[in-house]
Amino acid sequence: MEPIDIVRLEEAVVVFYRSTSQEQAHLHEWLTKVQLSAQAWQFSWQLMQLGKSQEAQFFGAITLHSKLMKFWHEVPAENRDELKQKILETIIQFAGGPKLVLNRLCIALSAYIVHMLNDWPTAIEDVINTFQNQQIPNVTKEMQLWIMLEVLQAIPEEMQAIYTSVKRSTLRGEVAKRAPLVMETTETYLQMQLDREWDADAYGNMTKAVKCASTWVKNIGFSIENCQNITALLLKMVNKCYWPCVQDPDGDGCMSADENDLAEVCLKTLLYIIIQPDCHLYPITASILIKMFLDSLCDITKMEWKPDNNNEDIVSSIYTLFVSAVERHSTLLLTGITTSDPELSSLCSRLVNEILQCTDKPGIYPVEESCSSMALGFWYLLQDEVFAIAYEAERFKCWEYIRPLYAHLTRILVRKAEQPDENSIDKWTSDDLETFRCYRQDISDTFMYCYEVLRNDILDILSTVLDETIAQLQTNPTLWTKLEACIYAFQSVAEHFDGDETKQIPKLMRVLNEIPYEKMNEKLLGTALETVGSYCQWLKDNPVYIPSAIQLLVRGLSSPMSAQATLGLKELCRDCQLQMKPYAEFLLNECQAALTSGQMKNSDCVRLMFSIGKLMSLLTSDKIPNYLDIIVSPCFEELTAICQAETKTPQARIRTIFRLNMISTLFSSLNTDLDDDDQIEDLQNVQPVLIVMQKTMPIFRRIAELWVEELDVLETACSALKHAIVNLKSSFKPMLQDLCYFIVAIFQTRCCAPTLEISKTAIVIFYKDEGCKSLMQRLLVEFVSHSFKLFESTPENGFSNIAETIEMFYACLLQIVKKIPQSLDDKAIAYDRLIFYALKAMTLPENGPIRTSIQFLSHFVMQSRNYPQMTVAVLTAGEEILKTAVVCVACVTPRQQVEKFADIFLSVNKKYPAELAIWLRNIMLQSPNFPTNLVDEAEKSRFITQIIREKVNKRLLQQHITEFAIKARGLSDKFQ
């Protein structure tokens, strides 16, 4: 690189930090290049001279840190001591600020220390001695302490980030030897502070000291056997932050920002202490620490157990600590349940009770409280651990212990699932509502865990809550939220109950129909409708309750809750289709009325068509045409009108997609060929979908011509036709010719994923039918040739722009080569192009084309030995296939995807083992730097041997490929 003009560099840095993002992008590349240059070792110091702008000084500091982190090998051994002195002097120079620069210099010293641990083994002791004992003149005591803590805190993080030739595990071991000293230093400082008055500087340094200890525990580890002193200290600090402000008669009871920050970092450090990887090996110490947590912190959680409390942050941190402790030490918890030791039993009961209290926090989440959500995962863990106990007697004892807990929890969850009412909803933002929706889903999952413990007893508990709620509504009809939450709880456990339950669910169904919804919030009706849908399996075995369910759902169709009504009706028609026959015509009339009312959203109309198809399938053949005419004709009439007017406005596009979606949904569910003898009254019955298709196929062709440039319209049209094909199967044969005209008409203008998929569907279904084989073969040739035209017209660097089409092309070919490989044995199909573009797809950055092209090639190779022309194609391209695969593994494909290439190596090894050995040696050993210059000849030879040897074990082969990819990319250091 040319010599760097320091004046120009400083100007560029100032512009970079003070300019817009567009200007920054222009400068970023040059400044990065400058940082990487060897000259950076010199100019970093020049930029940090006094008098330079703060931006220049900061850039100098981060450049120095970057060089120390990534280019340590550029520092000659004889210059390293001088470098240390220079860093220390510059730190002292910036002791008065700016802190931004000083912070980066401290981190730079940390990186230097990590590199020099062998040559300067007393580095950490020297830093502590220098700054703790105030050996630096003209620098305040607090600032010297700040510098020391900043340096110590950064050491574990730098240990993980620096580029070094030392094995990461060895380096970690060296740093870990210094952990006791660092922990002792922070403990000594914090102990001194406990008995003093705290000012702003004290808060800053105490927070930094605790963060320092936290970083070492989290990243290096410090045995909990040695953590009782630091635990006691941290707990005292939390209490000193909390109680004075709460007990101050003149205060507002709210902790200051400094107190909050210090308490939070103390609690986070305690969390890191109790969840360390090896802490389960010390159950006695763990129980001592957890008891210390409870003894010290439970009074705080008790004080703050109210909605809208002033100190929610500290309570959240405490409950996070409790939950994390019990999750990490679940074995200790189970021991506490079954033990005869009263102290351990009491400890575990106290801990579980705290988590129960956390779940039961007063107020509505997340507006009035923010804690309860963090406890929900614990209830899954507890029942899961109990039922995983191997010994039956022990498992039974634990189950008996947790049953009353989960019974209590069930009632708590009903309360916590209550929605905000009309009086409080104004306080809620859209983010709050979305957070609450997710929280309710978590509560729904937790009801399922309660069922695992309580089984059918959960219905008795919910039924009691239902009775209580209905009684309360007699005196206060506006209290709808508890009733809604109770119904939601019934809905959450619905999947576990079949027709045998005849006590509580009939009562629920009766209540759902008796509720005066018109007097209550519409959300109550919405939940009731969803609940009816969730009990469809039960209704199938108890059809006597179907009329009342239909009555409620029909009521919902004309309400603002039509979305829930159409969902419930869809589930009812799907799960109880045959039981719906007596009500089919009534429901079809109601559905028609709902469609023509104009009150439903487009998505609800589309969903309703599924129910219409299922209901229409129950009618006798003489009645179906009338309903087709009433319900389906408006769709085709509107589509015809749009096509005739050639209207291509955004509104016309939306209406076209909407109408096609309605037709598509109907085609997916309308099928009179039901698996029930009573339904097949007319053996000569023609499928209704076929009747529709015969009349309307020309409209599909006109839609394709009009909207050929609109992918979403084509996708919807193809989806409708695909549903028709899958639904009708062999009955669709009379329409195949028209379908092919439709597909080829689109192909001639554009090749796109939807058209490829419907082509594949038709080919796979009809190819084996002798009467259709010739037509399907021609369609396959068109399918391949039009795709090639698209690929050939795409610029070399533009294939990512058609990644979705490439992915679909090879996904479709994969199904074809798996199910009807003989269809590819056709001279009109250019195998060399198929393979060439598959290799191209493998080198793209997008996961979809990588995956489907690899799978296609693997199956193509596996089938090729059965077809001479395909065999020749593989023998011709085999070496190129393997070469591309190796290059992808070594440097092209995203590292997370390289395992997929095992399929190619396995398939070639199974069908062409002799050729594989020759091809691999030709590829790997003839070019000295292939595939990258980071793998030597020995490593390449070993990789070849591994590939050749593994003919069956895919997992082991994937492991070999991943290891080779790591070496070839120079990532070995990061994965030590």
From TrEMBL:
Subcellular location as annotated: Nucleus
Broad class of where this protein is predominantly found: nucleus
A Pfam family per the record: Importin_rep_3
The UniProt record lists the keyword Ligase: no
GO biological process terms, semicolon-separated: protein import into nucleus
Top-level taxonomic group: Eukaryota
GO cellular component labels: cytoplasm; nucleus
GO molecular function, one term: small GTPase binding
SMART domains attached to this UniProt entry: IBN_N
Keyword Lipid metabolism: no
Keyword tags: Nucleus, Repeat, Transport
Location of the Importin N-terminal domain: 53-93
Subunit structure: Interacts with UBC9, RAN, RBM8A, eIF-1A and PAX6.
Family membership noted in the UniProt record: Belongs to the importin beta family.
Official protein name in the record: Importin-13
Organism the protein comes from: Glossina morsitans morsitans
Organism classification: Eukaryota, Metazoa, Ecdysozoa, Arthropoda, Hexapoda
